[in-house]
Input
Amino acid sequence: MIQEYVQAVDDDEQAMALARHRTHLAQLYTTLPSYGSVAYWRSVEESDMHRALPLEVIVKCIRASVVRGDSVGRKRTFEILFRRIATSNQHWANTVLKARHFTTGEQAVFVNDLYADICECVMRAIIDPNQLFWEENFLHCLSFERRHVYKTFLRQEGHWVYSREKKGDRVPRRLIASIDQPAQRSGAKPLVPLLEDEMARRALLAVEHSDIPRLIVSLPDRLKAVVLLIFWEDRTEKDTARILDITDRTVRNRLKRALRLLYRKLEAEREMLHE
Amino acid sequence: MNSKQKEAIQRITAQYVAEVRAGHKPKASTYIVRYPRYANEIADFVAYFHAFEEDVPMGAYTVPALPKAFRIAIESANARITQEQLRAHDELPSYLSLVAEAQGPYQLNELATEQTQGLHTTSEQSQELTGE
Output
C-alpha cells in the first residue's frame, strides 16, 4: 500500500517535470526568429553549447523545413545536428566494434558503415512526423536507433547466431579432451550435455559482471529477461519466476537454453582471440 | 510492434536511463513488474544500454567539424531520402497520365461519333433482318 502511494507520488512528480520540460522546449521553439532569417540560422547553428538550442528543438526545426518543402534548409539543419552528435556516435561505434574483436583496418571500415547507417536511420525517423518522442527526449530516441543499427549490423556481418538454437551441434573439442569419459549406464542421462550446462554456468560466472549485458544482447528476446535477472541482478530462479510471472520450470528451461548459447559464444570468442 | 507500443517502451526505458544518469541504481525487475507486457523489451534495452550506451558521452561541449567519411555518409543518406521523396511525389502525376492514356477513345466528340456509327449499324442490321 505504502509502495503504491510512493509510486503514485513519483508518477505525479514525473508528470509535472515532464510538463515543465515540454513547456520549456515549446517556448524555445516559438520564440525563435522567423524561419529562414539570418537570426534564425544563427540560433540553430549556435556553436557555444551553453547557448545552443536543445536537440529536441533542432528536431522541430528540421520538421518545419520538411513541412515547408525546404530541402536546402533541411540539409543544413541535419548537418548541425550530426555535428553535435558526432562525438557520441563515434564513441558508440567504437564501443560496439571493440566488443567484436576486429582488426584495426576492419574497424575503421565498420565505423564508417555504422555511422552511415545511423545517419540514415536518424534522418528517416526525424522526418517521420509520427515519431513525436524525438521532440521530447532526443538522446533516448538516438539510443533506440543505435540499438536497431547494432542489431542490423550483427545480422549483416553474420554475428547474430543466436536467433535459433542449432540442433545437433558438436560438443567443443576442448571440453571432450578435458574429461575422462566414464562408461555410461543404459537409461542414465547423458553426461556431456549436463557437463556442458555446468561448464556454461561456470563460464558465465567467470565473465566480468560488466560484460554480461553485452552477452545478453545477442540472445533471443525470450531468454534475455531470465539471464538479466539471474546474472545481472543476482536474483534466484524462484524470484525470477515470480517477477516474470512464469513457472520455475520455464525459468530453468530458458536458463538452460541461454547458457548453452552463451557458452558457445564465449568459446567462439576465445577461439578468435587465440587465432 | 506498432509506433504506439514503441513510444511506450521508449518512455518506460527513458525513465530507467534517467535514474541511471541521476546516479541511482535502478532495478530492471522493478520495471518488469510494473510493465509485465513489455518484459522482453525492457530486458533487451536494459542489457543493450549497459553494454553500449552507458559510457557514451551525453553531449559535446564543442561542435567538431565532421570527418570526410562522415560527411559523405550524411550526404548520401540525404540524397537517398530526397530521391525517395521525389519519387513518391512523382508517382501522382505519372498515375494521372496513365489514367489519361487509358481514357483512349472516350473523348466526348469520339463518343458521339461512335454512337452515331452504332445507330447506323443498327439500322443496317434491321434492314437485313427485315429483308428490305
Notes: The longest helix of chain B spans residues 68-103. Chain B has five helices and no strands. Chain B has a mean pLDDT of 74.
